[in-house]
Design brief:
metal-binding, Zf-FLZ_dom, FLZ-type domain-containing protein, 5 helices, mainly alpha, metal ion binding, binds zinc ion
């Protein structure tokens, strides 16, 4: 009984969230993306809620590429930062550099 009711309630949402989890929210600010909202795709499979977010992600990618090139030269420094989550660490650095660049 319970499962029949549940399946009747939102069968489509169940399937689509399993197949396309990345389309549920903006990849940058995590704002939920509804079906009627405009979705700005980047690199084919990364959704954003607005041109601003997508633009920022493109800047972040450019910075990340630069950092990757730099970190190849300075690997000793990076090893000291390994106790931090690399995601959190790089996000901090990136947002700082973005605000300077803008
Ligand atoms: Zn966004």
């Amino acid at each position: 009984m319970a499962s029949a009711f549940f399946f009747d309630a939102e069968p489509v949402c169940e399937v689509s969230s399993l197949l396309l989890p990345a389309l549920d929210a903006c990849a940058l600010c995590a704002k939920p993306l509804g079906r009627d909202d405009d979705i700005f795709m980047y690199r084919g499979d990364t959704p954003f809620c607005s041109e601003e977010c997508r633009d920022e992600q493109m800047q972040l990618d450019a910075i990340r590429a630069r950092q990757a090139a730099r970190s190849a030269a300075g690997r000793r420094q990076q090893q000291q930062q390994q106790q931090y989550s690399s995601r959190t660490e790089s996000r901090h650095q990136e947002s700082r550099k973005v605000s300077v660049a803008t």
